[in-house]
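Example (one chain per record):
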Amino acid sequence: MTLGIGRKQLIMLDGALLPSVLQNLPGGADKLSGFEQGFVDALLARMGMEARQDAQLKANQRRYLQEAAERALDK
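Predicted structure:
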């Protein structure tokens, strides 16, 4: 509950309106486009980060298995 309140206050301090406020304002469907674009940008960034981490973990595992096989052959 406290984190949600803090998040809303930070958003409003930045001058942005919350989606719940925007949906009640008169105007067209474009009034939420900035919020939607920010949300999409955040999701794309998150997906890119997860894909990069996945690739790094797979590369680390491949390297570990290769080194383990080489150590087994050295014995």
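Caption: Residues 2-74 form one domain.
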